[in-house]
Amino acid sequence: MAGQGARSRSQHQRRKRIVQAAAALASRGGIEAMQMRTVSERAGVALGTLYRYFPSKMDLVVAVVSEELDLLEGSIERRPPRAGSAPDRAVEVLMRATRGLMREPELAEALIRSLLLSDVKTDFGERMSELLLRTASGPPEDISAEDPRRLVARALSGIWTMEMIELLRGNATAEEIQSRLEITAARLLIDP
């Protein structure tokens, strides 16, 4: 039993090294730089091991997206939004996500592009929606499935994704995005 726990820990650490290596490569050269052989070499694992964890490059990209969401969620838990209204709290979360992603623009572009082009199932939209719902309206488990706030959180998450594309293309500034998100959130989200 103790051996199984150590093996599980070792597998978790190996998977984490792979994801970190992929993210580092993507941050320097976008998704094109995430060649499976290069990722395996950088992570210090055999190519076969890499494919056992991630059967395709897009599976690996989805894992990097998930890791970035984990970091954002951890940041929000440690420092919850302080704004008073639901729309302001939601915008604060989205702008923190924007600033976090834009620290590594090539990684951000790779992640956003993968969300749009990948056939691999990802829970990005759902996780962002739940995060917005939790920060704007309270614990998601306390909000029924039929509550319109769930749809609004999903819509706001989608709008933010499209705004990120505009930012990455150079068609908008972070300030312009924040202004548009503030207007959108104020019209969509209401305090209960």
Automatic annotation (TrEMBL):
<dbReference type="InterPro" id="IPR009057">
    <property type="entry name" value="Homeodomain-like_sf"/>
</dbReference>
<protein>
    <submittedName>
        <fullName>TetR family transcriptional regulator</fullName>
    </submittedName>
</protein>
<dbReference type="InterPro" id="IPR041642">
    <property type="entry name" value="KstR_C"/>
</dbReference>
<dbReference type="Pfam" id="PF00440">
    <property type="entry name" value="TetR_N"/>
</dbReference>
<dbReference type="InterPro" id="IPR050109">
    <property type="entry name" value="HTH-type_TetR-like_transc_reg"/>
</dbReference>
<feature type="DNA-binding region" description="H-T-H motif">
    <location>
        <begin position="35"/>
        <end position="54"/>
    </location>
</feature>
<feature type="domain" description="HTH tetR-type">
    <location>
        <begin position="12"/>
        <end position="72"/>
    </location>
</feature>
<dbReference type="Pfam" id="PF17925">
    <property type="entry name" value="TetR_C_20"/>
</dbReference>
<keyword id="KW-0238">DNA-binding</keyword>
<dbReference type="InterPro" id="IPR001647">
    <property type="entry name" value="HTH_TetR"/>
</dbReference>
